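Q: Got a minute? One more chain.
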Amino acid sequence: MSRYIGPLCRLCRAESVKLYLKGKRCTEKCPMDNKKAYPPGMKGARINYKKSHYKKQLREKQKVKRFYGISERQFRKVFYEAAKKKGITGDNLLKTLEMRFDNIVYKMNFAYSRAHARQLIRHGHLLINGKKVTIPSYVLRVNDEVSFKETSLKNESIKGMLEDAKGLVEVPSWIVVESEKYKGKVNKYPTREDVSLEGIEEHLIVELYSK
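A: Always. Here it is, folded:
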């Protein structure tokens, strides 16, 4: 599957919710805060139509997939793994997505966005328990520690980015961050309430993939 390289604000408009795909830049002149807060392709918000149940399911899946920045193939794989676990499939899906390496790096304020976190991970700047991991989709476990390579911290651009990214997002309770040492630790597994994307109806996603 090809990677989407178009305007990111278009994706937020399509899902009618702010997905914060640009990270810090999402707070500046966001189309969702002005007159363009309607789906792309329309000339205004006057067009009103009834969504089918299938379309509601599809849009919910697309919203979550775009929020975490993963492909359809990756999302489907995570879903089927979540379905095999004990408990509620929808909750398992969201918890697994929250525990992804790129999401945790972003939640620790070590990157401007999840896309930026993926770039840092692929370039080998980050460590898990002292070992280099270059897979953004890697799922962490409790007590795993995330830190920067010492050589990376000597890079002025990365050091400046880390200072600029401090306080960008609220660090969740299941993560402990030592900002002065540029490292953090997964304290416990996230709960359904810890998912930062509001208004998710994960049962629609389960229904879509259960057909």
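A: The first helix runs from residue 8 to 15.
Q: Perfect, thanks.
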